[in-house]
Amino acid sequence: MKKAFVGFSIGIALISILLIIVLATGVWEQFFIQEEEEEIVRTRIVTPQEVNLYSEAQQPGQVSWSGNIDTKIPLEESEIVISVLNKESDDNRPEEQFAVYRIASDSGSVFMTFLYFDESIRSYKRMWNMPISATRPETISIYSQDLIGDRNNCVIVTGMNAQNEHTMTIFRRLPGQPIQSAYRKIAELQIAGSIVVQEGSRTLAYQQGITRGRSYNIASYGHDPRSSNILDQIETIYSFNTVSQQYEQTSVTRIPGSQLEQRRLRELLSGASGVFENFIQGLWYYVSPRGTIDTRQYLYFDPARREIIFYGDDAQQVFHWQMSTPTRYGLYIRSQNISISTLLRFIDIELESLDRVKLRVTEDVRLKITISTSWDGSYRRAILTGHDKPAPITGAVDALYDSSWGKLQLFSSGEYAITSGGNVRKGRYVFFNANGTELLEMRPEDANAPAARMVYRTESAAGVKILTRVKLGTDSITDMMEPPITLTKID
């Protein structure tokens, strides 16, 4: 009995000593930290409700973005991160990460690096670095999409280079290859025009994961060097070759543009600062492929306030016009949603005619969500066509009025001031004619004003002017059903 008690006492002492050693060396803490780190790595980003887009579960072939600007492991001190894409791994490992970066001492080159989770060291490691064609950081967008139809999402980087050419670089993971050499560059295009992925419908069997889908082609549009018409283009189609595992040129087609006055075109497309921006100022309605105008979807460009308003599906989205770059056929704009700072839109605008433009919109939401872009297509200028073009009546007057707003002073310089209760609101105004109706447009200079522009129908009765708030359409003027404003002139 005594021997058993002595043995038990020695056992307790050994266990206590072992526990002290474990705590002192941090082995116990390291074990739990590793478990916690593994859990952090595998954590998914939940779709935010405020953007009202799709859920985390995405259908095959849909476009996805990710925008946590932090990299899984730090890059070198001289490397400046531009954009980051987190992509689901194909072998059920923690997500892979692609980071686009530039070197501080070299502003003319941009690179992409691949960060992969190595199970043997329980950490991410940098696998390779490759240059990309885009060199202007403010124009770069990175996303992943199933281009080939085999559910092996390609990594796509778009942007512009120093020559203001559009670029597209595509990487694809090769099945069965070691991770160090698994990703290969399968396309790299740059052109003084535009580059688009020609998406098409895929079968229900593909959507359900039963069969492969057909590959998407890539199309580039550039100037036709054989033509004197600036708007004539060359369309080049690139298709995926399953043998070489590369996108290769398969067809070239000449596309005639509108026959417009070439001198005016050269002025608009000269690249001079602000010329094309001023040209697109105003309201533009969507034109369907059948040529009909859809007044339920429109854009409003306001270069003075640096705003772009998107309206569609009974919802209005306002974007801050961050920067724009002239291109051979129009303008490339980077914009940011004023409510959701992580939502960016890159807008490529091409001139089709003097009252029609074509848009290609790329959205970068910088969150782990899937999106469906519906802003691509042609748009026609509202009202400013043919005989409906607004004609000035009296561009500006010098008069003082009393109204329910307060004292309204119109200056001959085209400016106005509304004084009420010691507060003064200022802006610019203009009178004009549309469809035989006299209208007054007022633009507040206050960036926090409820509306960027307000249009009123003006009528005279019994020595007073009556203003009725209206909305302009392509072929109509709609009453907004607001109480009218009466202006009584003060001599």
Question: What keywords describe this structure?
Answer:
mainly beta, 8-stranded antiparallel beta barrel, 32 strands, 491 residues, 8-stranded antiparallel β-barrel
First CA to last CA: what distance?
Answer: 120 Å
Shape annotation: globular
* Main β-sheet, spatial strand arrangement: 14-15-16-17-18-19-20-22
- Counting DSSP E segments of at least 2 residues, the number of strands comes to 32
Structural domains: how many: 3
Major sheet summary line? 8 strands, antiparallel, barrel
Mean pLDDT: 78
Compute the number of helices: 5
| Strand residue content | over 45%
Helicity range: 10-25%
State the secondary-structure class: mainly beta
- State Rg: 30 Å
Give the SSE map.
Layout: H1 2-25, H2 27-42, E1 63-65, E2 79-87, E3 96-103, E4 106-118, E5 123-131, E6 141-145, E7 154-160, E8 166-173, E9 183-191, E10 194-198, H3 204-207, E11 217-223, E12 233-241, E13 246-255, H4 262-268, H5 275-280, E14 282-287, E15 293-302, E16 307-312, E17 315-326, E18 330-337, E19 344-353, E20 356-364, E21 369-371, E22 377-381, E23 391-392, E24 399-403, E25 406-410, E26 415-420, E27 423-434, E28 437-444, E29 454-461, E30 464-472, E31 477-479, E32 485-489
Antiparallel strand pairs: 1-21, 2-3, 3-4, 4-5, 6-7, 7-8, 8-9, 10-11, 11-12, 12-13, 14-15, 14-22, 15-16, 16-17, 17-18, 18-19, 19-20, 20-22, 23-27, 24-25, 24-32, 25-26, 26-27, 27-28, 28-29, 29-30, 30-31, 30-32
